[in-house]
Design a protein that fits this description.
- The protein folds into two domains: 2-118, Aminotransferase class 4, branched-chain amino acid transferase, N-terminal domain (D-amino Acid Aminotransferase, Chain A, domain 1, 2-Layer Sandwich), CATH 3.30.470.10; 123-281, D-amino Acid Aminotransferase, Chain A, domain 2 (Alpha-Beta Barrel), CATH 3.20.10.
- The protein has seven helices and 16 strands.
- It has helices at residues 22-26, 44-57, 68-78, 120-129, 152-163, 206-218, 265-281; strands at residues 2-5, 8-11, 29-37, 40-41, 85-92, 110-117, 131-137, 168-173, 176-180, 184-189, 192-195, 222-223, 227-228, 237-242, 246-253, 256-257.
- The strands form two sheets. Strands 7, 8, 9, 10, 11, 12, 13, 14, 15 and 16 form a ten-stranded mixed beta sheet that branches. Strands 2-1-6-5-3-4 form a six-stranded antiparallel beta sheet.
- The relative contact order is 0.14.
Length: 283
C-alpha cells in the first residue's frame, strides 16, 4: 500500500520513523480516522477541523492541515480503494533529543497518512445482532476532548472488554456514563435520547454530531445529559457511535441485557438514517 510521509508518497514498508520522534517517545501527537464510502471520505472537513483543534491544544505548529484532504483522495485513488475504506492521519511534534519540554527551535512536524480497506460485513453483523459492553472507572486524563495518540487507558479498557467477551468498554466518572474506549454513547430512557454533553471529558465525535443533526430532522427528543449508573436498569436502548461503529446497538452491559437484549427501534432508525445520509453524500 502507498502511504504519505512528510511530503512524499511511499510504499508503507519503506517508511521509517526515527526513534527520536516525540510521537514514539511521548505519544506527543494527534490523529484522525475517517470513514470512506464508495471511495469518498465522509465529513472530511469536520475531521480536519478536529485535527486542527487537537493540534492547537497540543500547541503544535503549524496546525492547518487542509492540504491533507488532497493527500487522502490521492491515497485512495492510487491504492485503488473505490469502496469501503478508512483514512488514518497522524501528526507528531517531530524528531528531537528526548526531553519533556518542547524542543527549541521546533523541529518539523512528522505527518503520516495511510488508507486501508474497511470490513463493512463485520460491522453490519454487529449492527444486526448488537454488541456487548462493560463499564469501567474512568482513569483517563482530563483532556479527553483532544484526539491524542496517548491512548494507553483506552487500550487497556478495550483489552479488558475483549477478555470479558465484550466489544466495548464504557467509562464511568462520578456515576455518569461518559463514552466508550473508542466511541461516544447514547441511550434511550423515559422516551428521550440522552448523551453526555460536550466537555473536556468526552471526544467531540463526528458521528455523534451527525446523529444529533439527524435527531433534529427526525423529531427525536434529545437531552445532552449523561445517563447515570443507577439509571442503567431502566434503559430501553443503548448505542455506540463512532467512525467505525456508525450507530451500533449495545444489547448487553456488564453481562446483563439492556431492556430485552435486542437492537432498539430508535437505534435502528438512526442507523438507517445515517446510512441514507452517507449514500446521498458519498456517490
Amino acid at each position: 500500500m502507498l502511504a504519505y510521509f512528510n511530503g512524499a508518497y511511499l510504499p508503507v514498508e519503506e517508511i521509517h520513523i526515527s526513534p527520536d520522534d516525540r510521537g514514539f517517545l511521548f505519544a506527543d501527537g494527534v490523529y484522525e480516522v475517517i470513514r470512506v464510502y464508495k471511495g469518498q471520505p465522509y465529513r472530511l472537513d469536520d475531521h480536519l477541523a478536529r485535527l486542527s483543534f487537537s493540534a492547537k491544544q497540543l500547541r503544535l505548529t503549524p496546525n492547518n492541515f487542509s492540504f491533507l484532504a488532497e493527500v487522502a483522495r490521492r491515497l485512495l485513488s492510487e491504492n485503488g480503494l473505490t469502496g469501503a475504506a478508512t483514512v488514518y492521519l497522524q501528526i507528531t511534534r517531530g524528531r528531537a533529543p528526548r526531553q519533556h519540554a518542547f524542543p527549541q527551535p521546533p523541529p518539523p512536524l512528522t505527518i503520516y497518512a495511510a488508507v486501508r480497506p474497511f470490513d463493512e460485513r463485520r460491522l453490519r453483523a454487529q449492527q444486526e445482532r448488537g454488541i456487548a459492553a462493560i463499564t469501567l472507572p474512568d482513569n483517563r486524563w482530563a483532556r479527553c476532548d483532544i484526539k491524542t495518540t496517548a491512548l494507553t487507558a483506552n487500550v487497556m479498557a478495550n483489552q479488558e472488554a475483549v477478555e470479558r467477551g465484550a466489544d466495548e468498554a464504557i467509562f464511568i466518572r462520578d456515576g455518569a456514563l461518559l463514552e466508550g474506549s473508542h466511541s461516544n454513547i447514547m441511550a434511550v430512557t423515559d422516551g428521550e435520547l440522552r448523551t453526555a454533553p460536550l466537555s473536556n471529558s468526552i471526544l467531540p465525535g463526528i458521528t455523534r454530531q451527525a446523529v444529533l443533526e439527524l435527531c433534529r430532522e427526525l423529531g427525536i427528543t434529545v437531552r445532552e445529559m449523561p445517563v447515570f449508573q443507577n439509571e442503567i436498569p431502566k434503559l430501553t436502548e443503548l448505542m455506540a457511535l463512532s467512525t467505525t461503529f456508525e450507530v451500533t446497538p449495545v444489547v448487553t452491559l456488564d453481562g446483563q441485557a439492556v431492556a430485552e437484549g435486542l437492537p432498539g427501534v430508535t437505534t435502528k432508525r438512526l442507523g438507517r438514517a445515517l446510512r441514507q445520509t452517507v449514500e446521498r453524500l458519498c456517490r
